[in-house]
Amino acid sequence: MNYQIKNICCIGAGYVGGPSMAVIADNCTNTIVNVVDLNQERIDLWNSKDLSNLPIYEPGLKEIIKRRRGKNLFFSTEIKKHISEADMIFISVNTPTKLKGIGAGEAIDLKWVEASSRKISQYAKGKTIVVEKSTLPVRTAETIKNILNSNTKKPNVDSNNQEFYILSNPEFLAEGTAINDLENPDRILIGGDNNNAIQALESIYSNWINKDKIIKTDLWSAELSKLIANAFLAQRISSINSISALCEVTGANIKEVANAIGKDKRIGELFLNSGPGFGGSCFKKDILNLVYICKYYGLHETANYWQQVLEINKWQQERISNLIINKLFGTVVGKRLSILGFSFKKNTNDTRESPAIKICKDLIEEGAKLNIYDPKVKSKVIEKDLNLKESIDFDNNSELGEWRFASNIEESAVDADALIFLTEWEEFRSINWQNISNKMRDPKWIFDTRSIDLSKEAQKFGFNIWMIGEGKNYS
Ligand code: NAD
Ligand code: UGA
To answer: Tens of pLDDT along 122-144?
Structure first.
């Protein structure tokens, strides 16, 4: 078997499926790439004429969509058709934490992976390479194999000459830098047990990626490496966040500490920014899954060790809402607070597991009136995340917490006692302090949970400033 991949289908047009297939289409212009999804609304947005309406925001994405859409990149809900035409199928569906049943709250819910595998088993024709792109528990390929081969084993069913080869090719992109990560990845990981299938996938990537960046391994190591990469990244953030609290009480400064330890090559400089805790759709669910797998195999010490990474993350978020309340004289009832940034990091409209959700919920619970501004997150999304309708006007006679969407920083600052920076959007670095400070109530505060470091300018306008991990707060 020597494969030439002419037609790719990707099941799942989400944060991974959309950008990763766009980059493949851009670099393999002779290959047809069809991205399919059950969600008609999402597909319509991918096909929208106005490229500012794409369902996800990623720097550099709309330029690629403009170049390739309608040429060799297509978005559609015609799942059956595109599966049957494809010689390589990526499974890039969501794999969230299970909400009920065995393993609820920890294990991964594989129902979307199973549904995709069943569709492939039903409609694929001839030789097909099936690629796991979603992040999956180790040994999921075994389950997928069983489902895929279920048709070929039935005596009276026309199996369309089906022959399946399974590969694991986890995705390491980070949101906000997805296009750059896909174009210049640190590595491409391909796990499998069939050399021809591995080579076929390698030949796709080698259109733009140097061969020595392509790691080939067995299926189980590839699946597990993805979970472990996320666990190690999250662990770094929990480590630095735990030390941010120690800096605040001892007079040390977390930025100085991070810089000093990061210069040691064995530690490295990246991913050492302390903040309000990690968010995003994956770190928490992947560590919960790791914990679940360890417990399943009786490795309770390993499970407990990784569980602590999540405990610190939860604690960091609670610590921040508590200290905001304490600094504002122990109560925020009826106080207006400006929330700046709601996405889980800059340069994305994604709010999944954003620390802003927990912090805003805590402040609302305490009776605060929040003016929330984010350059890319829509009010409908915030409403869903907070599980609370947006107030049209704040009720000054009510002690209940409320929130309202602000369309810019100035609007969010009106009558506010504090600006609370929860995402590190670039535009927060060029605030007109004169303007903002005139709109606020005294004494006014800045809570900088992202080390944006606004102190030099803002201090001139009489702000009290609290910055994460800064021992100056200690006085
Ligand atoms: P997502 O929720 O944005 O997208 C998944 C899409 O799959 C949805 O649009 C959904 O409608 C679709 N889908 C589900 N079942 C389907 C089916 N049977 N047929 C057709 N479409 C179906 O998820 P995502 O963020 O793109 O993540 C996908 C996977 O990639 C997850 O396993 C995640 O852990 C992993 N991952 C995510 C990121 C990230 O930055 N978001 C990075 C690396 C890996
Ligand atoms: C993360 C990984 O970085 C990707 O490699 C992986 O593919 C992806 O998860 C996934 O599997 O979903 P992502 O969650 O998109 O990517 O973004 P990160 O840049 O990792 O940030 C995650 C969270 O950690 C954010 O809330 C961010 O603000 C926070 N963070 C990150 C810090 O608080 N400090 C840092 O130094 C870095």
So the answer is: 999 999 999 999 999 999 999 99
